[in-house]
Design a protein that fits this description.
This protein has about 90 residues and is an alpha+beta fold. Helices cover about 35% and strands about 15% of the residues. The radius of gyration is 16 Å and the shape is elongated.
Length: about 90
């Protein structure tokens, strides 16, 4: 498990991405475990970049609005954060 929780989540989510080449030669990509995360690009690389950006935006909005985020690998972003006092730092 990565020490950077969001980075680890994004990388593991993207590892499960599915890509298709469309009839016009462009590409579509989606992450089945993350409902609504879908992107398109002229090249596969462009599609991958767009999918990463879409996933990051989807995560930020979901976290801000308190939507349940799917658990991917060992990454559970639904846990309530714990806070420590400044004195402990």
């Amino acid at each position: 498990m990565s020490q950077y929780i969001l980075t680890g989540y994004v990388e593991n989510a993207l590892a499960g991405a599915e890509y298709d080449k469309l009839e016009d030669g462009t590409f579509s990509g989606r992450i089945p475990s993350c409902k609504g995360v879908l992107a398109f690009g002229k090249t596969l690389r462009n599609c991958e970049d767009e999918l990463r950006s879409t996933l990051e935006d989807w995560l930020l909005v979901g976290l801000k609005l308190g939507h349940p985020i799917p658990i991917i690998s060992e990454y559970d972003l639904n846990k309530e954060p714990t806070y420590e006092t400044m004195a402990s730092m």
